[in-house]
Amino acid sequence: MGASYLRIPRRISLLPEFQMTDAEWEALMIPINLAFFYRDSASGRMVAMYPSPAGATESLLSLDSWEEIRSQNHALQTLEPDVEALLVDRVSAEPSYFIVPIDECFRLVGIIRMHWKGLSGGTEVWRHIQELFSGLRSRSSHIERHPEAARA
Asked: How would you classify residue 54: left for phi > 0, otherwise alpha for psi between -120 and 50, otherwise beta?
C-alpha cells in the first residue's frame, strides 16, 4: 500500500467567541501560553503541541479537559484531522484562538527556533510572533457561535 497525502486546507478562521477559562487552560498542563491542537488520525487522539527553542514539544493532553473545551466550542468539531489545528495565543493582552492549516503552527515553531535569544526570547522573537498573529487576523474569516448555542 502506497503513501497517501492529504491536501492542507487554506482556511484561517478567527474564533472570537471561543470559550476557555483560565482554569480550563491550566488543566491542559501546557507550560507556556502558545499552543496548537490537532487530531492525529493514526492514533485517533487529540495532540497538544507547544513551540519552544528546541522545536515543537508534545504535551500530555488530558482528554477530560479537552472534551470539556471541545463541547463548548462547536467550531472545533470542524477541524480536519492531521492538517488543521486550533492555534492558541494567550501571550497577547487579548487571548485569541484560530483554526489554521497545520503549516501555520509549524511556521510559529520555526520563528521561535530561529529568533529565540536567552531565557525570555528577546524582543526580536516577540516582534515576529506578534507579526505572525497580526497576519493571521488580517487573513482570517470569523466563525460565529453555533446557532443552537446562540439561542441558549
From this structure: alpha
What's the rounded Cα separation, in Å, for the pair 135 and 89? 13
Contact present, 14 and 141 (Cβ < 8 Å) = yes
Residues 80 and 13 sit within 8 Å (Cβ to Cβ): no
Q: Which residues have C-beta within 8 Å of that of residue 128, sequence separation ≥ 6?
A: 111, 115
* CB-based contact 60:45 (threshold 8 Å): no
Q: For 66-80, b where at least 16 C-beta lie within 10 A, e where not — what string?
A: beebbeebbbbeebb
CB atoms within 10 A of CB 100: 25
Give the Cα separation of 77 and 18 in Å (integer): 13
Task: Summarize pLDDT for 75-95 with one digit per residue, the tens.
Answer: 999 999 999 999 999 999 899
Residues 6+ apart with CB under 8 A from 50: 30, 31, 32, 34, 35, 36, 56, 57, 59
Average predicted confidence (pLDDT) for the chain = 90
Each domain of the chain, given as residue ranges in start order, spans: 13-143
DSSP-assigned letter for residue 116: -
